[in-house]
Amino acid sequence: MKKLTVLVAGAAGYVLGARAGRQRYDQIADGARKVVGNPKVQSAKQQAQDYAAEHAGAAGSVVADKAKDAASAAADKVRGNGGAHSAPDEWPASAPPPGS
């Protein structure tokens, strides 16, 4: 349903845009350029970039730590909690080894 909504909205936008023509497009583009060129917008953009650069290192180390913990937990599960998912020491005589 979501894809259908996106397709319908895209088609409607295309039709409306085609009807508006080049003149309206130029008006919208000029308005967008004015907004982007606004000093307040530029300041907010710079603040966002500074914040992201400042906190990216900390976020990266948190992600790395969580990935190591998840990998360690997965390895512990595979190694030997004795459950149904643990790897057998030997293949049963009734079952051929994988790849045979």
Defining traits:
100 residues, mainly alpha, 78% helix, 0% strand
Please explain how this structure is put together:
This protein is mainly alpha-helical and 100 residues long. The protein has helices spanning 2-37, 39-80. The chain has a domain at 2-66. It is flat and about 80 Å long. The mean pLDDT is 79.
Query: Count the strands?
Result: 0
What Rg is obtained from the alpha carbons, in whole angstroms? 29 Å
Amount of beta strand: under 5%
Helix share of residues?
A: over 70%
Q: How is the quaternary structure best described?
A: single chain
List the helices and strands and how they pair.
Elements: H1 2-37, H2 39-80
In short:
The protein has a domain at 2-66. It has 100 residues and is mainly alpha-helical.
